[in-house]
Amino acid sequence: MPKVILYATPTCPDCHALRLWFNRKGIEFEERNLTIPAVADEAKARYGVRVECPPETGR
Q1: CA 26 to chain CA centroid, nearest Å
Q2: 29 in a structural domain
Q3: pTM of the predicted protein model
Q4: Which helix (H) or strand (E) holds 17?
Q5: pLDDT, tens digit, for every residue of 13-49?
Q6: How many CB atoms lie within 10 A of CB 44?
Q7: Which domain, by its residues, includes 16?
Q8: Which Pfam families match (predicted)?
Q9: The total number of structural domains that make up the chain
Q10: Residue pair 33/11 in contact by the 8 Å Cβ criterion
């Protein structure tokens, strides 16, 4: 099975939902914290796009 890398932030609700889904399905993953500039740069270089979590809406 291929290794899954989850680029996420600690406060992102979509990231949290994906973590829960991976865990429920038994999918092993490595999480990388996008709040660390070097990790954000790595994700941008790897995928060629700016990676950002949607802003919090206060809901």
Answers
A1: 17
A2: yes
A3: 0.73
A4: helix 13-25
A5: 989 999 999 999 999 999 999 989 899 889 889 887 6
A6: 15
A7: 4-47
A8: Glutaredoxin
A9: 1
A10: no
